[in-house]
Amino acid sequence: MRRVHRTQVKGKWNDIHPEAEIGEGTDIWSWNYIGKCRIGKRCHITNWVHIGDGCVIGDDCNFQPHSYLTSNVVIGDRVFVAGGVQLTDIKYLSSEKHPMREPVKIGSDVVLANGVRVLAGVTIGDGAVVAMGSVVLDVWRQFEPSDVEMLRVRGVKYVPIGRNQP
User: Which of 29, 54, 69, 128 is 20 to 30 Å from 122 by CA-CA measure?
Assistant: First the structure.
């Protein structure tokens, strides 16, 4: 990994932290915020994407417009994040000035369809597909790790609807 080079930034008006580490071959389009984070090789970041401080993104990931990652989100390799997806590590606001946070972890080969919301403390296993508009709460933990892999879910309570074929 190395710091971003101008040849990788395809658009204008990006706000990229000077200490962001962006892998070789990653494309960044216009109107994005990229905090102090690590982004792997050959990622594709379209317009209006927010990637907060402390995020770690694997190789070959694809972020569609209006994707929003707060800080402390870890994403594996070959993940597709569709438009309007929000991944947040903010559990709740405390009486202090700092919110309570729990990291979000997304495995490799995952698809997050349009409008998915993944809330603080959630881990989504490798190969999972989360259907459009689903809200994934911390109760995802009710599944065993082996059950979470290759799982397809939908809805606000994310009802399991099957498994992906490897």
Answer: 29
Q: Is the CA virtual torsion 7, 13, 19, 24 positive or negative?
A: negative
**CA-wise closest residue to 22 among 45, 1, 53:** 1
Residue type, 14: N
The tokens describing 78, both together, are 């070959």
Q: What is the pLDDT along the chain (166 residues), one digit of tens a residue?
A: 445 544 467 667 889 999 999 999 999 988 999 999 999 999 999 999 999 999 999 999 999 999 999 999 999 999 999 999 999 988 776 656 666 788 999 999 999 999 999 988 888 888 888 888 888 875 544 444 445 455 556 555 555 555 555 5
DSSP letter for each residue of 68-116 = EE-SSEEE-SS-EE-TT-EE--EEE--SSSS-EE--EEE-SS-EE-TT-
Q: What is the CATH number of the domain that holds 97?
A: 2.160.10.10
CA distance 146 to 149: 6
Q: What is the pTM of this model?
A: 0.81
Domain housing 107: 2-163
